[in-house]
Amino acid sequence: xxxxxxxxxxxxxDGKTAQLFALACRVGAMQANRESGRQxxxxxxxxxxxxxxxxxxxxxxxxxxxILDLTSTAEExxxxxxxxxxxxxxxLPVIRAASRDxxxxxxxxRFTGIDQASISTVHLWFKRLRVFATWLRHRGIDRLYExxxxxxxxxxxxxxxxxxxxxxxxxxxxxxxxxxxxxxxxPPECRMPVAEPWQxxxxxxxxxxxxxxxxxKTARIAVDTMIPLLDWAxxxx
Length: 237
Prior knowledge:
Layout: H1 6-36, H2 43-71, H3 74-77, H4 83-86, H5 92-100, H6 102-111, H7 119-138, H8 149-161, H9 166-181, H10 203-206, H11 223-232
Helix pairs in contact: 1-2, 5-6, 7-9
């Protein structure tokens, strides 16, 4: 198993939830400064301080949400649980647990979420596998036992190039991984002769294109852009 490293997980939080919260707090600070009429040398410092708070808050929020995804029920959260794990996305609790238990790591590497897939998930796999099958036919490949690592790498490039959201791309990779995981139960001609698709990288890792570093690096919004936005958004919204 090669789960995404803890640093990659932190980078994903930085580029997603933390930056979103930081931006929301920065906009709030800009609105407050504008409405108060204060224009002083500390204005930017106040914006940076609130953006930093938002970044930390978003960071903590995502960590807590990932823990609750594993420890709570759907009734308690009011939304489906274990969704990250079932899609091959390893959050920090899973990364830490797998690093301490090699047997767990090997189990996750092959059957994460696959052995407990719902009927709707299996149906979705079949839909996504049609994309893979069509791509293979265009390359002159008629049997799964003819697929090698090079073919999978080319399919990876193909999926990354198509117009699709991250969720759909993740599903396309999950479907291929499911066929590989179920190989022992399939006829020989339906087994891909690869050690593990994409060298063990999860569908979540394969779809992550964000390259960010840790820390509060929220991009500044140009004044010419922000002023019309603030005019549009009255204080009582």
